[in-house]
DNA sequence: CTGAAAGCGCTTACAG
DNA sequence: CTGAAAGCGCTTACAG
């Protein structure tokens, strides 16, 4: 197991300069056929592979994109990460990943250390001065923050919440409950506003329980719901996890879903259609979201070429979310 | 928005050499207090941040670890990824992530381009010559391959499968079915062997359906099970997803779980205890697995210091997996 | 304690 | 088509 070959070793073996080796590898046409041949043989003989770190330093780019998400253990991100990595890999880019809640100093460094040249940001709660201080092409995906000076991509959460309200109303529900995400989360706030807006238009009576997207919070909300004197018959949870927790707890308390209460979620996670009952929800095309974000970012990176962040379209780019009707919602009881 | 400062700018402003700036930043004690003071002021004034790419090239390391998994969209990896990233971040390391099925050429490059100095490998099906050709500290996590010249970490899948067989037997089941993972997967093979071994010891009658860990495969297995003349009363699925698919399909076909059939899974994913019925399963401590792998790898990286892969303990390090009894298994019917 | 100089491993004008 | 040389932005023996 000998030390790995450097470009100089290849050059020596082939009897040419390192410049020629470099050219033979990166733009074969710029080199004579015979020379190219000899270089390639030397490459094979030495087992040479380029040192990307050195090339990147010289070219002042990293060929890498950084993904930042508020909680990597959240399975919602899995498909998004996979799609981003897939597109990046096709484009010859590497993917770096980090929890975005690693502390201000570390976070600043990540976007500033020369090891990434584009960022996919899935967190709308980072300090705007940090985000805007990164002089790197950046795209906001899913979550967003109007203070960030960067384009954004995602579903139209307000419109999606309208679908939810419309669905419950169509089934005859007159009093509905929203189990929301946390107050400081832009998705939660937007979904809630959208739901209440549409429910109001439709003349429904509304209530809101604040939760935090998790299974446990959903279960807790179910207990609060059960304790109510007049229980809403339709429930819209801000996430599928929350809805599954809600339903699970309802069933444990002896209620039937959707017989006693209709419950719907948001996201359409993989298990949604295998849950019992199968979950009515809003489908978020996460694979498409990730791929679109990566593609857009790569475009920006090509446009930027070290010129920092470039022209930002004011309007968010929306990806379609759709209502998926399954078995957890039904006609109002009685 | 001016160009970012380099170390030379700081040096000029502080009236010292770049060497001194470098020292003031990396080992403040090796520099006079007054000098240090002036340097720090210049750093603040210029907004200087080190260019990690340049430092890494000079120091011939990447301060980065690479995670390779066969399918990033698999939610099983979420917590592992989060834990690895957490430990890495604490150690000042960056995390690179890639699907391990990106093609031989790209894969070879990833471990060979100087941008990572350690690898967490979650795939036992890569070509051994590729894996062994990376001259980088590497640890196998969860999946493994005896042909890889690297230590491994994970639960004892054979012992875990014993627990499953023991559990079903203790409930009185005499004929049991295993819905396995794919034949070419080391986890699947090991779990199946362990289950059959223990079931044999306990005098149970056994059968196996080969599947592939997914929800759909579980549902398909349920249909095959239902079509059987003599239906096994206890079913052990090689993954929770598979078990959820199996149960879901059983219920859709009109069977009761666990009234008509006991079904258990493997992994203990987040939804397992909120599923209806709550899933009996084998708990894999994924967070602990990820953290342990990262810690171990970092140790190896410190020991290695460019010396390539070092001493490999033959025996795998096992992390405890435990049986979690919930509601999807019960006494044998009748 | 501090600086000048070499060098990490590449690429790329510039000449020829 | 090819090479010598400079340089990407750092760090680190080596001297003093």
TrEMBL record, chains A, B:
Query: PROSITE patterns, alphabetically?
Result: HTH_LACI_1, HTH_LACI_2
Q: Where is the HTH lacI-type domain?
A: 5-59
Key words, A-Z:
DNA-binding, Transcription, Transcription regulation
Question: Is Magnesium included in the keywords of this UniProt record?
Answer: no
Write down a Pfam family by its short name. Peripla_BP_3
- Would you say which domain of life the source belongs to? Bacteria
- The protein depicted here goes by the name LacI family transcriptional regulator
Q: Known InterPro entries for this protein?
A: HTH_LacI, LacI/GalR-like_sensor
Annotated segments matching region Disordered: 315-334
